[in-house]
Amino acid sequence: MAYQIIGVNDINSNSNSIGLGISFSETSPIFRSIYITNDQAYENLKTLLLTRVGERYMEPTFGTELLYLLFEANVTALKQEISDIILDPIAYWLPYINVDNLDIVTNEDDNTLQHNIQITLTFSVNGYDTRSITISADTNGALIVN
């Protein structure tokens, strides 16, 4: 059996790169590796928002109660409750994410809105550009995350 010794300078960094995590692609059944901190922060935030409290094994307080509230009666107090349910877990579980803007739009605000509620969260990680996550819920119970 023969072995080849490769010097450190001869290693191709593209073939040996180690990703920060994986992305769950909706268009492809194959997981995509993530190499950029901002992309990993986006995936971490999406995971936090879509995980119900008590759903994660060995981390019973991880997640939000957002999925329970999206289909509640559309009253004025709902916006503040959604804001608290989103911002408090982000501050605790993902302190490196800076929430720049949280915009909650309901049918009361915009009659042309096709969905009952639309939440747009704009965030940034120190040293990176801002990104947005939009969560929409419609009357059929479908939840759309972009």
Q: Which stretches are low in confidence, meaning pLDDT under 50 for 5 or more residues running?
A: none
Percent helix = 10-25%
Q: What's the SSE pattern?
A: EEHHHEEEE
Q: Which structural class matches the secondary elements? A: alpha+beta
Mean pLDDT, to the nearest integer, reads: 78
CATH domain fold name: Nuclear Transport Factor 2, Chain: A
Query: How big is the Rg?
Result: 20 Å
Query: What separation lies between the terminal Cα atoms?
Result: 52 Å
Q: Which CATH-level-2 architecture?
A: Roll
Instruction: Report the principal-axis shape.
Output: elongated
Strand order of the largest sheet: 3-4-5-6
Strand count, sense and barrel status of the largest sheet are: 4 strands, antiparallel
Number of domains: 1
β-strand number:
6
What's the SSE blueprint?
Layout: E1 21-23, E2 32-34, H1 37-50, H2 66-69, H3 77-93, E3 97-106, E4 117-125, E5 131-137, E6 143-145
Antiparallel strand pairs: 1-2, 3-4, 4-5, 5-6
Word description of this protein:
By secondary structure, the chain is an alpha+beta fold. It has one domain: Nuclear Transport Factor 2, Chain: A, CATH 3.10.450. Helix content is 24%, strand content 24%. The protein has helices spanning 37-50, 66-69, 77-93, and strands at residues 21-23, 32-34, 97-106, 117-125, 131-137, 143-145. Strands 3-4-5-6 form a 4-stranded antiparallel sheet. Strand 4 and strand 5 (131-137) form a beta hairpin. The radius of gyration is 20 Å and the shape is elongated.
